[in-house]
C-alpha cells in the first residue's frame, strides 16, 4: 500500500512537470523570429526586447506579439503584420521561415541595410496586401513567383540593387494598386504586359537602366493616376496612346532620352496637374491644345530642343503655378495672358530666343516668387507691379536688352533675395531702398548704364553677400563710407565705374573675400585697416591713382601683380620694392641716372613691342585655321574667333581667386560669363585628351559643374565652365549654418560623387576631392569642380590609353578601385569639415584613433544638438558615414551608392 501511494505521487509530479513544460516551451513562430534575429546585424540594438520570456505564457498565445515590430490580432494568437522599418538592421533574411507567417497581411522591412538576394519564400505569404522592402541593398535577379501574391495591393521595392529585367508576372496581380521599382538598377525595356494591370493607380520605375521604346500598351491603364518612369534611357518618342490614361494626374518622364515631337493627343489628359518632360531631346512646337489641360499646376518642358512660341492657349491654364521652358530654342513673344494667371508663382523661360517685351501686367494678378527670363532677346521695361504681391524672391533678367530704370516695385521689394539684371541697358540712378531690402543677399547690376553713384544706404542691407556694379562706365560717385561694415558681404565688385575719392577704412570686414575696384579714379593710400579682413582672397585696385605701399601681409604678397598695376605711386610686393626717402643731394645726384634709365627703358619697350609684333604675326601664320570650337549643351554655337576675341579684351577677363590651378573669368560675346581653365599637352596625345574632354563635356548632373565648351588647337585648350558666383565651400566653411543646410550640402556632394562612380560609363574618379573643389550655385547647392582632371594630368605625363583610369563596368582594376576608395576617404573628411564648421579639417585618420562618443559630443556641441534627440540621431548617422568612409582599410569603405542609401534616412 505504501509503495502504491509512492507511485501515485510520482505520477502526479510527472504530470505537473509536463503541464509546466507546456506553458514554458517557446512557440514555433517566436523561435523562427529569434532565429532571424540571430542572423541579423542589429547595430542600434533595435530588437533588444526579442528574447524568450521567463514568465508563463498560455500555449495558444504567441510570445512574439509583445516584441517590437510584431503586430498580432486581439488574442495574440496570429501574427498579422511585421514592421521592422528604420531599425538600422543589416545582414540577410534567408533563414526566416515564412511558413510560420502565412497569416501576414503586411510586411515592412524598409529603410534598413539588408543585403543579399531577396528570398523567394516571401511570395508564399499569400495573404499579403502590403510588401515594402524599399531602401535596402537587395541584389541579384528579382526572384520569380510574385504572381502568387493574389491579394497584394502595394509593392514598394524602391532603392535596391537588383539586376536584370523587371518581373513580368507581377502584371497578373489584379488587386495591385501601387508598384514602385524605382532606383533599383533594373535594365531592359518596360514589359508591354504592364499595360494589363486592372487596378493600378501608382507606378514608379524612374532611376533605373531601362531602355527600349516606351510600350504604347501603357495607355490602357485606365485607373492610373500617378506615373514616374523618367531618369532612364529609352529610344524613340512618347506614344500617342499615353493620351488614353484618362485618370492620370501626375506624369514624369524627365531625363529619359526621349526624342520626337510632343503628341497632341496628350491634351486629352485633362486631369493632369503635374507634367514633367524636362531634360530630353524633344523637338518641334508645344501643341496649342495643351491649353485644354485646365488642371495643370506644374509644367516643366525645360532642357529640350523645342522651338516656336509659347502657345497663347496657356492663358487658359488658370491653375498653373510653375511654367518652366528654359534651355530650349523657343522664340516669339511672351503671351500677355501669362500675366493673368492668378496662381503663377514661378516663371522660368531663360536661355531661349524670346523677343519683344514681357507682359507689363506680370505680377499684378499673381503671387510671383521666382522669375527668370535671362539670356533671351527681350526688350522694354521691368513690369511696374512685378513685386506687387510682396512674395518675389528671385528676379533674374540678365543678358537681354531691357532698358529704363528700376521700378518702385523692385526698389522696395522686401521679399527679394536675389536680383540679377546684368548685361542690359538699364539707366538712371540705382534706386534701391536698401533699408527695405531686408532679405536681399545677391545683387548683380553690372554691364548697364546706371549713373548717380552707389547709394550710401547700401550698408542697411544686412544680409547682402554679393554686390556687383562693374562696367557701368558713367556711374561715378564715391565708395560709400560704411560699405565694409556690412556683416555678411563677401564679394564687392565695382570695376570700370568712374568712381572717385578714397577707399574707406575697414572697420569690420570678417566675411569679405573679393574686392574689385580696378579701372576707376580712386586716390590716396590703401587703408592699413584692410589687414582686419581675415577672409580676403582678392583685392584688385589696378589702374587707379593709389599711392603708398601695399601691406606686407602674406595674403597680399600672394596676389597677382595684375591686382595692383597701373598705380604709379604704389609699391611693395607683388610690385616693385618700396625704398626709403632719399635726401635732396641724393636725388640730385641720381637725376642723370634716371634720365639714362628712362632712355634705356624706352629702347627696351620699343624692342619688346617689335618682338611682340613679330610673335603675333608668326603665331597667326603658324596657327591659322588650327583653332576649333566645341559647344556643349547650354552654350550658343560660338566660333573659335568669338571666344579668342573675348580673351584678348582686358575688359572681359579678370583674374579670379584660384579654385584649383589657374582659372580666369571671361565674358563671351552674348554676355555669358564663364570660367576659363587653360590646359596644355603634348601634340601626340591630342586624340586622348580631346576624347576625355568630350567625355567630361557630355556629363550632366545637378551636383557637377558643367563644362560648356572647349576652344582648342593641337596642344592647347581653353575649357569654358559655367560661372557660379557664390564661391567654393572652403570660403564658406566658417559660415554658421543650420543642420538642414549642412545635410543638404553633404547629400549633394554624395550625389555628384555617386554619379561619377556609378552612373558614368566608363566611370570617373574625382581625383582631387576637397572643399575648395566644391562650388556653391545660386541655391547654395553644392557642385563638384575639377573632376577627372587628375586623369588628364596623368595622360599628359605619359600614360597611354591602355593605362588610363577610364574603367568599364566589368574591368575594375585594383588601381581604379583604389582611386575610388581615395574619393570616398576624401568625402568622409569633407563631412567632418562641414559638420564642425571647418574645425575638423583633414581629420580622416585622426578620428579612427579617437573614441566615437567623444567625437559625437564635439559635434553635438558644434551644432547645438544636446537637447534634440532627433537631431542627435541624424548627426549619429552622418558621423557614422564619415567614420566608415575614412576607415584605414580601403576595401572596408562603403560605395557611394551605399552612402546615398544611408543618407536617405535624413529627415532634412
TrEMBL record:
Taxonomic superkingdom: Eukaryota
Topology of this chain in the membrane: Single-pass type I membrane protein
Cited Pfam families: LRR_1, LRRNT_2, PK_Tyr_Ser-Thr
Family from the record: Belongs to the RLP family. Belongs to the protein kinase superfamily. Ser/Thr protein kinase family.
GO annotation, biological process: post-embryonic development
A cellular-component GO term for this protein: membrane
Localization annotation: Membrane
PANTHER family with a match to the protein in the record: LRR RECEPTOR-LIKE SERINE/THREONINE-PROTEIN KINASE-RELATED, PROTEIN KINASE DOMAIN-CONTAINING PROTEIN
GO MF entry, a single one: protein kinase activity
Membrane spanning stretches: 595-618
Annotated InterPro entries: Kinase-like_dom_sf (IPR011009), Leu-rich_rpt (IPR001611), LRR_dom_sf (IPR032675), LRR_N_plant-typ (IPR013210), Plant_LRR-RLKs (IPR050647), Prot_kinase_dom (IPR000719), Ser-Thr/Tyr_kinase_cat_dom (IPR001245), Ser/Thr_kinase_AS (IPR008271)
Primary localization: membrane
Domain Protein kinase: residue ranges: 649-906
Protein name as annotated: Leucine-rich repeat receptor-like protein kinase TDR
Signal sequence annotation: none
Keyword tags: Glycoprotein, Kinase, Leucine-rich repeat, Membrane, Receptor, Repeat, Signal, Transferase, Transmembrane, Transmembrane helix
Amino acid at each position: 500500500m505504501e509503495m502504491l501511494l509512492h507511485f501515485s505521487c510520482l505520477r502526479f509530479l510527472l504530470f505537473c512537470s509536463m503541464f509546466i513544460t507546456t506553458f514554458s516551451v517557446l512557440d514555433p513562430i517566436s523561435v523562427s523570429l529569434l532565429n532571424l534575429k540571430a542572423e541579423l546585424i542589429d547595430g542600434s540594438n533595435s530588437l533588444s526586447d526579442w528574447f524568450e520570456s521567463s514568465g508563463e505564457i498560455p500555449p495558444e498565445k504567441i510570445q512574439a506579439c509583445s516584441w517590437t515590430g510584431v503586430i498580432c490580432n486581439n488574442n495574440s494568437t496570429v501574427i498579422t503584420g511585421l514592421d521592422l522599418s528604420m531599425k538600422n538592421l543589416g545582414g540577410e533574411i534567408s533563414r526566416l521561415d515564412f511558413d510560420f507567417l502565412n497569416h501576414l497581411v503586411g510586411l515592412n522591412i524598409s529603410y534598413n541595410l539588408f543585403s543579399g538576394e531577396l528570398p523567394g519564400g516571401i511570395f508564399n505569404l499569400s495573404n499579403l496586401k502590403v510588401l515594402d522592402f524599399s531602401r535596402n541593398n537587395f541584389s541579384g535577379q528579382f526572384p520569380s513567383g510574385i504572381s502568387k501574391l493574389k491579394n497584394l495591393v502595394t509593392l514598394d521595392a524602391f532603392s535596391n540593387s537588383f539586376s536584370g529585367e523587371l518581373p513580368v508576372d507581377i502584371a497578373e496581380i489584379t488587386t495591385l494598386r501601387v508598384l514602385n521599382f524605382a532606383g533599383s538598377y533594373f535594365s531592359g525595356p518596360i514589359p508591354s504586359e504592364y499595360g494589363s494591370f486592372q487596378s493600378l493607380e501608382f507606378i514608379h520605375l524612374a532611376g533605373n537602366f531601362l531602355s527600349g521604346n516606351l510600350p504604347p500598351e501603357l495607355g490602357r491603364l485606365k485607373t492610373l493616376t500617378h506615373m514616374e518612369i523618367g531618369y532612364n534611357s529609352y529610344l524613340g518618342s512618347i506614344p500617342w496612346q499615353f493620351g488614353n490614361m484618362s485618370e492620370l494626374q501626375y506624369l514624369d518622364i524627365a531625363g529619359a532620352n526621349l526624342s520626337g515631337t510632343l503628341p497632341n493627343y496628350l491634351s486629352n489628359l485633362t486631369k493632369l496637374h503635374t507634367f514633367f518632360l524636362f531634360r530630353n531631346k524633344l523637338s518641334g512646337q508645344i501643341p496649342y491644345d495643351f491649353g485644354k489641360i485646365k488642371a495643370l499646376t506644374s509644367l516643366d518642358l525645360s532642357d529640350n530642343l523645342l522651338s516656336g512660341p509659347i502657345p497663347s492657349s496657356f492663358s487658359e491654364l488658370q491653375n498653373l503655378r510653375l511654367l518652366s521652358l528654359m534651355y530650349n530654342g523657343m522664340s516669339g513673344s511672351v503671351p500677355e495672358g501669362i500675366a493673368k494667371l492668378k496662381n503663377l508663382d514661378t516663371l522660368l523661360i531663360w536661355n531661349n530666343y524670346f523677343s519683344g517685351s514681357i507682359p507689363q501686367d506680370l505680377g499684378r494678378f499673381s503671387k510671383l516668387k521666382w522669375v527668370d527670363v535671362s539670356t533671351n532677346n527681350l526688350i522694354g521695361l521691368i513690369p511696374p507691379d512685378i513685386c506687387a504681391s510682396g512674395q518675389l524672391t528671385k528676379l533674374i533678367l540678365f543678358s537681354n536688352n531691357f532698358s529704363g530704370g528700376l521700378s518702385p516695385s523692385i526698389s522696395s521689394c522686401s521679399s527679394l533675395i536675389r536680383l540679377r539684371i546684368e548685361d542690359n541697358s538699364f539707366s538712371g540712378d540705382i534706386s534701391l531702398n536698401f533699408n527695405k531690402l531686408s532679405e536681399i543677399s545677391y545683387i548683380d547690376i553690372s554691364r548697364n548704364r546706371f549713373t548717380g553713384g552707389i547709394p550710401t544706404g547700401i550698408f542697411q542691407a544686412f544680409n547682402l553677400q554679393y554686390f556687383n556694379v562693374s562696367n557701368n562706365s558713367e556711374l561715378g560717385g564715391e565708395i560709400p563710407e560704411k560699405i565694409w561694415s556690412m556683416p555678411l558681404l563677401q564679394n564687392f565688385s565695382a570695376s570700370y565705374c568712374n568712381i572717385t575719392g578714397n577707399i574707406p577704412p575697414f572697420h569690420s570686414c570678417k566675411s569679405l573675400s573679393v574686392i574689385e575696384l580696378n579701372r576707376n579714379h580712386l586716390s590716396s593710400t590703401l587703408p592699413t585697416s584692410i589687414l582686419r579682413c581675415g577672409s580676403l582672397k582678392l583685392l584688385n585696385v589696378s589702374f587707379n591713382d593709389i599711392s603708398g605701399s601695399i601691406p606686407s601681409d602674406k595674403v597680399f604678397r600672394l596676389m597677382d601683380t595684375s591686382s595692383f598695376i597701373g598705380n604709379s605711386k604704389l609699391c611693395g610686393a607683388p610690385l616693385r620694392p618700396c625704398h626709403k626717402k632719399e635726401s635732396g643731394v641724393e636725388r640730385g645726384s641720381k637725376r642723370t641716372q634716371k634720365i639714362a634709365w628712362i632712355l634705356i627703358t624706352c629702347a627696351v619697350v620699343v624692342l619688346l613691342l617689335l618682338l611682340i609684333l613679330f610673335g603675333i604675326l608668326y603665331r597667326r601664320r603658324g596657327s591659322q585655321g588650327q583653332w576649333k570650337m566645341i559647344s556643349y549643351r547650354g552654350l550658343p554655337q560660338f566660333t573659335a574667333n568669338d571666344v579668342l576675341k573675348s580673351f584678348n579684351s582686358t575688359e572681359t577677363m579678370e583674374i579670379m581667386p584660384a579654385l584649383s590651378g589657374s582659372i580666369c573669368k571671361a565674358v563671351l560675346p552674348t554676355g555669358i560669363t564663364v570660367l576659363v581653365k587653360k590646359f596644355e599637352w603634348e601634340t601626340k596625345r591630342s586624340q586622348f585628351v580631346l576624347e576625355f574632354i568630350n567625355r567630361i563635356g557630355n556629363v550632366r548632373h545637378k551636383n557637377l559643374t558643367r563644362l560648356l565648351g572647349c576652344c582648342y588647337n593641337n596642344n592647347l585648350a581653353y575649357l569654358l565652365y559655367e560661372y557660379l558666383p557664390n564661391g567654393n565651400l572652403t570660403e564658406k566653411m566658417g559660415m554658421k549654418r543650420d543642420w538642414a543646410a549642412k545635410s543638404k550640402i553633404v547629400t549633394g556632394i554624395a550625389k555628384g560623387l555617386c554619379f561619377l562612380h556609378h552612373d558614368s560609363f566608363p566611370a570617373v574618379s574625382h581625383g582631387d576631392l576637397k572643399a575648395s573643389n566644391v562650388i556653391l550655385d545660386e541655391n547654395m547647392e553644392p557642385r563638384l569642380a575639377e573632376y577627372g582632371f587628375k586623369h588628364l594630368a596623368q595622360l599628359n605625363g605619359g600614360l597611354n590609353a591602355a593605362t588610363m583610369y577610364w574603367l568599364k563596368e566589368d574591368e575594375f582594376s585594383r588601381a581604379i578601385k583604389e582611386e575610388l576608395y581615395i574619393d570616398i576617404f576624401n568625402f568622409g573628411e569633407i563631412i567632418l569639415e562641414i559638420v564642425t564648421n571647418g574645425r575638423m579639417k583633414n581629420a580622416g585618420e585622426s578620428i579612427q584613433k579617437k573614441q566615437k562618443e567623444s567625437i559625437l559630443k564635439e559635434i553635438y556641441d558644434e551644432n547645438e544638438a544636446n537637447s534634440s534627440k532627433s537631431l542627435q540621431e541624424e548627426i549619429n548617422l552622418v558621423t557614422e558615414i564619415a567614420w566608415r568612409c575614412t576607415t584605414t582599410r580601403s576595401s572596408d569603405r562603403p560605395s557611394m551608392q551605399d552612402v546615398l542609401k544611408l543618407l536617405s534616412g535624413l529627415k532634412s
